[in-house]
Amino acid sequence: MSVTAAPGFAAAGVSAGIRPSGKPDVALVRALVPAVGSAMWTTNRVQAAPVTVSQRHLEATEPQAVVVNAGVANAATGPGGEEDAARTAAHAAARLGHEPEEVLVLSTGVIGPRLPMPKLLAGVDEAAVALSPDGGPAAASAILTTDAGAKTAVAGGERFTVGGMAKGAGMIHPRLATMLAVVTTDYALAPGEPDAFLRPAVERTFNRISVDGDCSTNDAVVLLARRAGDARDHGADGAFAAALEEVCADLARQIVADGEGATVVLEIVVRRASSDDEARAIALRVATSPLVKTAAFGHDPNWGRVLAAAGSAPWNGGFAKLDPDRLRVSFDGTAVFDGGTPTGLTPTLEGAEARIELDLGLGDGSCAYLASDLSYDYVRLNAEYTT
Q1: Residue 239 buriedness (CB in 10 A; 0-12 / 13-18 / 19+)
Q2: Per-position DSSP letters for 82-150, written without gaps between them
Q3: Is the pLDDT of residue 294 over 80?
Q4: Residue 95: C-alpha distances to residues 17, 29, 65, 92, 382 (Å)
Q5: Most buried of 72, 106, 239, 334 (most Cβ within 10 A)?
Q6: H/E element holding 256?
Q7: How far apart are the first and last CA of the chain?
Q8: What is the DSSP string of 160-229?
Q9: Structural domains of the chain, with CATH
Q10: SS3 240
């Protein structure tokens, strides 16, 4: 049931005619009980109107509902775009019996065009009528653009459930968030608490994936949780944090696997770096190297490209520390470079996943990153995106 797996939430997904294909394009998620929430947003300097409006709403009060539209990003649309986003929230709030600030709005699609408001508001009306605890799958399908399919995840146990949905296939290189994701839980949290759980989960999952190295104007991850009473039980906080990260990690991996034109998921693991920050810089550099990604598409264990990328990882005004004489590089467990020289071994890269490990031999820093390969289809899809 995806985003409605946890009791106390309802969702819907409908086709409002925003997407020329006629596919579902408006989703609505609502808390059926008082909720608290948090969100993380893109840090791109060009931020879409829904991001700006929703940030203001989140600063004012606790979110109770989320409206998502696909097909039009409502980005780079000026004051009119903000008016459209605010009007969408107000319209949904009126239908649901909330204040406008209690509704967050998310958009995804082409940058530049204004939202077709009559269609969108009619879609919100239809979605409000269709809201159901079983509506998670429909909502997950209504937020897609170039995705091959819906992305959903559920985790938890006897005491609580965490459920989520996400979209994303291209323009994936998050800064404090990812494309679009909505996560809900019946684990009761007090006002102000969701951020402390969401931020580290996003940092270790959505913030460590890349498809094409491009940071979107609309990235957002939203968490809605049941609102706790005066005496909140903290006994399962650790288990909840683990379940939240499990859902985020599952959704993040699905995004990478569904990268536009992707055929291979690359896992880049950096160990024994001088620091965690430098390990992350190196992992990110390898994950976003077009040469590494195209080699992965060809199942070519071209470790020279990995070395070149790792040795030029921007960090702190220069490059992250790396000594080739201490470096060990492995592909799927086979060492191809060790201590400054090639091993002469050639791994056979097969299947839809590949693991590249770099042991720097310098310290205790570590980081893991997920990335997709770069294929012919990626170029084709993005060459034709608006035409």
Answers
A1: middle
A2: HHHHHHHHHHHHHHHT--GGGEEEEEEEESSPPP-HHHHHHHHHHHHHH-BTT-HHHHHHHT-SS-SS-
A3: yes
A4: 20, 13, 11, 5, 37
A5: 106
A6: helix 237-257
A7: 35
A8: -EEEEEEE-SSS---SSS-SEEEEEEEEEE-TT-HHHHHHHHHHHTGGGEESSS---SS-EEEEEEEEP-
A9: 2-257 (3.60.70.12), 265-383 (3.10.20.340)
A10: helix
**Dihedral of CA 233/238/243/248: which sign?**
positive
Angle at 158 between CA 156 and CA 161, to 5 degrees: 35
pTM listed for this prediction: 0.93
Report which DSSP code applies to 3: G
Residue located via tokens 């109770």: 64
Burial class (CB in 10 A: 0-12, 13-18, 19+), 149: exposed
Instruction: Identify whether the C-beta of residue 65 lies closer than 8 Å to the C-beta of residue 102.
Output: yes
Give the C-alpha separation, 291 to 295, whole Å: 6
Contact (Cβ atoms closer than 8 angstroms) between residue 146 and residue 168 = no
Tokens of 317: 């005004």
Q: Is 178 annotated in the active site?
A: yes
> What percentage of the chain has pLDDT greater than the value 90?
86
| Residue of 314, 331, 310 whose CA lies nearest to 322 | 310
Name the DSSP class of 74: -
**227 near 188, Cβ under 8 Å?**
yes
Per-residue confidence band for 384, with pLDDT thresholds at 50, 70 and 90: confident
Q: Which one of 4, 161, 178, 205 is the catalytic residue?
A: 178
**pLDDT-derived band at 149, boundaries 50, 70, 90:** very high
